[in-house]
């Protein structure tokens, strides 16, 4: 019998699989939903039969009391789970806002670093920022109260200093920087342990 090469075996699982939080919440809410549904149908049918004058055999008082207790517990648990879901949603919103703030801060830092590295003038920095935002030459000229020819010349100077030839290549520099340095820019690691930011060569990418 041939021995199997250990390198051909699939890697062993590192630990037990964990269910997503939303799946655990659904599993926990399912019994509560069933209890609330049964008790609601019971009391609604009781009211409807009384309004329509339909006589039904009275149920055992112990069963009715159990149904009332179940309904009360269902309402209380519904309030508890509802409050928990609200707190969870607020926490996720705060986390998303913080991530967006960090991303905005990281991008602003990249812009400042690159503009300083390329030694752009104040006017070129402003034009470069507008270009990255997707504004046309005419729109940039209108915002800066200058001619399109001046903006075109400044754009050409920016491309030359950055080592690119198109606007898409200019934008790709910052996208690559954000993708290449996620740890240094999106975690709480102290700056002293990260080291200086990576600098790209002056040539095109």
Automatic annotation (TrEMBL):
The keyword Membrane applies. The keyword Membrane applies. GO terms for molecular function: DNA binding. SMART domains: HTH_LUXR. Keywords: DNA-binding, Membrane, Transcription, Transcription regulation, Transmembrane, Transmembrane helix. Signal peptide: none annotated. The chain crosses the membrane at residues 28-54, 66-87. GO terms for biological process: regulation of DNA-templated transcription. Residues 113-178 form the HTH luxR-type domain. PANTHER family: DNA-BINDING TRANSCRIPTIONAL ACTIVATOR DEVR_DOSR. This is Transcriptional regulator, LuxR family. It comes from Rhodobacter capsulatus (strain ATCC BAA-309 / NBRC 16581 / SB1003).
